[in-house]
Prior knowledge:
Elements (H helix, E strand, L loop, with lengths): L4 H5 L3 E5 L4 E8 L4 E2 L2 E2 L1 H13 L9 E6 L6 E9 L5 E11 L2 E12 L2
Antiparallel strand pairs: 1-2, 2-6, 3-4, 5-8, 6-7, 7-8
Amino acid sequence: MEKYQFDIDTAVTRIKDSDTGEALFASVITNDWHTGTHPNGGYLTSIVLNAMRTILPHPDPILASVYFFNPARPGPATVRIIRLKGAIHGGDTTLTQTNLRKQTNVYSSRIVDSN
């Protein structure tokens, strides 16, 4: 099956799981999906959704509420997911990047899947 560039550029790798429902994923934000001088918000959301797809029972969420705190930049990023408890499938996510030994929260969202 042919891989598309967007699929390659939004790929994630699971790096850690915990018993509390938290999962960490690594990704790389590329230079290829910019709006002006910073990576496009839809591109960043796609990276986070790819991480969520690996832990949710359904591949496509019905709701994603997204907040951008700081501009992202090309380079390594970490996606942290905390699963919601109860009847709702979903999780709270944070996309972070480290620059000069300072971790910056770029993105936060709540993503909900159908039951």
